[in-house]
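tool_call: predict_structure(chain=1)
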Amino acid sequence: MPELPEVETTRCGIAPHVTGQDVHQVVIRQPRLRWPIPRELPRLLGGRRIEQIRRRAKYLLFDCGHGHLLIHLGMSGSLRMVRADTPPDKHDHLDIVFTNGQALRLHDPRRFGAVLWCEGDPYTHELLASLGPEPLGDGFSADYLYPRLRGRKLAIKQAIMDNKLVVGVGNIYANEALFLAGIRPTTAAGRLSRARVERLVATIRQVLAAAITQGGTTLRDFVGGDGKPGYFAQQLKVYGREGLPCLSCQTPIRQRVQGQRSSWYCPQCQR
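tool_result:
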């Protein structure tokens, strides 16, 4: 699944190609995604200019002046720039065609993505209004996180993956950040000292920033807006490394399931 770094990589990849461009037409080949693509989208976008592309959590927000196009990549979605006359593949569900002959193409084999339209302030949309702060923004800090963890019995890994607490800390990055912070994924969130929360905030920022710099984490489906895969997977320290020696102490990495998601950790380095 594309996580925050992959979505930000996609935004950076496509923004130079679509910002300031006028929409010629919208081609909908498959309207049934996670939610139906609005039937009126070709009319709403036709003749309009893309003013800006922003990201909120894992949503891409296309500012079209009179409204916003919201795109979520779901489990397997990707966006690529292609020539408008490029024949579509089987799972190419949507083209936004520009007057310069280029098109932004949505590819989504599993069809768990979303293409929605929002009038007015997109941050008040029901899918965005209750989200927590961005992990790389000023609103995410130990001053914010520490009091919200106090007294909670929920495991810290599950806590930091809660989008209402902080957005964009997916399974890969939660495992990696907890390893760097020396915190075991099963530790009760409310047991962490302020110093350990400060360390965790710092490692979450560190891991996500590194992943964005290197283009995200390539697993099965993700490629960036330029069609090139990310390379952060080469630096993973615990994720997917069950039984392999810890890169810090050589103790075998362990794996367990938490909340239907796998966790990896070093029993020696993480407490």
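agent: The longest helix spans residues 194-213. Proceeding to next step.
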